[in-house]
Amino acid sequence: MVFPAGGRAVLVALRALRWAIDISLVLNAVLGKDRFPVDVALVAREYSTQRYPDDSVSLVVGRSRPGFDGALYRAPAGKRGWGIFYNSAIASTGRINFTLGHEFGHYLIHRLAYPDGLQCGEQDVVRWDSEDGQIEHQANVFSAGLLTPLDDFRRQIPERDKVDLDSRAASRPSGVDPSRSIMSRSPEALARGPRRHCMPASLSLSRVRVPS
Question: Is pTM beyond 0.85 here?
């Protein structure tokens, strides 16, 4: 597995993977190994409520907005918790699930450093040695590890099998696009990740229309 240069970046990426492994072990124990696709929205709400009851993910909601992939926002003043938002206009359910995992990763790893949250959108070029590139990589590592844990990956693709993305596309019920899932386990692809750009959120949940 390839990580961006820099000792601290490597440690945080390994911490992201550790989060994914720990949550996967809990899900295996509770639901069994045939538990896919992962319901990331449910996992984010329930796990965060148990682990951080005063600072949990209380809302996961889709909104159609141009140039927007996903976001993690702190609740408005006077309320507790966090909201995860995703672009409901995205056609691929696998990409949406990956985005939810990505934002959940930001919640677990970055919410203390970015107390207002983060908003993520597509961008053509991201410098992977930048702070943006590092936090995006860390969130990608978490999402890939949560949606395709190594034990499940090994069951789906035995060592001697040739990886055929077209045939796997129709058969694998992982909740993430097989091409993204498989390529996320490729060191080169995992190091790059989706071409996303995240910025500290200047908007709070009070400025985003949410269900009453």
Answer: no
> Does residue 16 lie in a domain region?
yes
Q: Which among 121, 80, 89 has a CA at the least distance from the CA of 103?
A: 121
Band of residue 125 on the pLDDT scale cut at 50, 70, 90: very low
Tokens of 87: 């672009």
Amino acid at 65: R
Q: Which of 180, 190, 172 is nearest to 17 (CA)?
A: 190
Q: Which residues pair with 122 in a beta bridge?
A: 196
CA distances from 40 to 26, 37, 141, 174 (A): 14, 9, 15, 11
In a domain, 1, yes or no: no
| Within-domain flag for 181 | yes
Query: How many structural domains compose the chain?
Result: 1
Range scoring the smallest mean pLDDT among 51-55, 67-71, 154-158, 176-180: 176-180
Asked if residue 2 belongs to a domain, the reply is no
Q: By residue range, what is the domain housing residue 90? A: 7-207
191/88 Cα distance (integer angstroms)? 26
Q: What is the mean pLDDT of the chain?
A: 76
